Amino acid sequence: MSQVEAPTKAAPAKAPTPRRAIESGVPDNTQFLHPLMLKNYGKWKYHDRPRPGVLHHVAQSGDELWTVKAGTQRQMDVWTIRKLCDIIDKFGEGQVRFTIRSNVEIGVSKWEKVEPLVKALESAGFPVGGTGNSVSMIAHTQGWLHCDIPGTDASGAVKALMDDLIHEFKREEMPNRVHLSTSCCEINCGGQADIAIIVQHTKPPKINHDLVANVCERPAVVARCPVAAIRPALVNGKPSLEVDEKKCICCGACYPPCPPMQINDPEHSKLAIWVGGKNSNARGKPTFMKMVASGLPNNPPRWPEVSEVVTRILRVYKEDARSWERLADWIERIGWPRFFEKTGLTFTKHLIDDWRGSRANLNASAHIRF
Ligand code: SF4
Ligand code: SF4
To answer: How far does the centroid of ligand 2 lie from the alpha carbon of residue 260, in Å?
Structure first.
């Protein structure tokens, strides 16, 4: 007789526990806000700027908050961070937050605390400014400190340029605010800015065939190329890669996954200046930058050629733009031909976006169209 097991009662199914999202993006910003900012979030009556570098917020509740904005080096050693924190503890109220352009914003609840805080910051080498219609601190990339593909030292170019522009950071004399950015390769960080300084490779990568087979995943490198210029090849009996130099647009995208495809070059990696980018929707739609100067030498430690072009554009913009015109609005009003006339920059064939695949952006460069 076969034994039939009595059916066991199934345990009630547990409600599945939702897996917590792994958040590796931007942290919750509320933890960095001054308590008064948090208390009155979204309930402000008005705000103004009693002096460059200081914001004053008045809440509907009657609370007032002053925020002192100062520039930092972005890449700071521990000693400098401690010095900054000591100032914040002594003259501020123990609260600080970093902005996207590496400025610090320190909130205080009393106007009497503002001037001593400004003095302490300035005397320690942190210039106060960057508010309103100023030239804000340059949003710059990590460069050699953290990244493995830079063609130049981004923070060095930023330091040299901001030394020339420090008075424009501390005053609010521009027609509108001016955002600058730098990128030490052609493909990654940086971002849209009123004026951007971007590495520009001018020669295809040189391939070290002895290393490719040991270091590179060839399919990954082939897939990286935006113009399909890379092919697998056998060189001296070893698996390697070859580049169709007629197709190559010298973007440098193959170098990060395959360092033996060396594209950084002391002579042929140059710097280009782009203008007219904007992320915000304020007064006009966001805009893309366009290249207006190319082939500037990558000339450390002070990059004088880059500083000369950037300060020249800023000088003409300051004199010629109407109040509240961003750089892109000003160029839109006067037109690209007048932009080149007024700034004295030379329009060359290198400024024309002639990549065959980009039908959609052929009309996006600064060239004159008929
Ligand atoms: S811009 Fe390019 S090279 Fe510079 S830090 Fe970013 S990814 Fe690296
Ligand atoms: S530099 Fe850019 S276009 Fe040239 S081979 Fe490398 S990925 Fe392709």
So the answer is: 13
DSSP per-residue codes, 29-59: GGGGS-HHHHHTTT-EEEEEEEETTEEEEEE
Please identify, by atom number, the ligand 2 atom nearest to the C-alpha of residue 228: 8
Q: Which atom of ligand 1 is nearest to the CA of 183?
A: 1
pLDDT given for residue 2 in this prediction: 44
Question: What digits encode the pLDDT tens for the residues 47-61?
Answer: 999 999 999 999 999
Nearest in space to 328 (alpha carbons), one of 273, 272, 285, 271:
285
Residue 53 CA neighbour count, 13 Å, CB half: 24
Q: How far apart are the C-alpha atoms of 161 and 346, rounded to whole Å?
A: 21
* Segment holding 158, helix H or strand E: helix 154-170
> Is-cis flag, bond preceding 301, omega within 30?
yes
Joined tokens for residue 125: 């080498």
149 lines ligand 1 (CB under 6 A): yes
pLDDT for res 230: 97
With a 6 A CB cut-off, is 149 part of the ligand 2 pocket? no
Q: Is 143 close to ligand 1, i.e. is its CB under 6 Å away?
A: yes
Region 106-129: what's the mean pLDDT?
97
Ligand nearest to the CA of 247: 2
DSSP string, 93-134: -S--EE-TTSEEEEEES-GGGHHHHHHHHHHTT--B---SSS
For 66, the token pair is 């002053």
CA 39 to chain centre: 31
CA gap 255, 252 in Å, rounded? 6
Average pLDDT for 8-26: 71
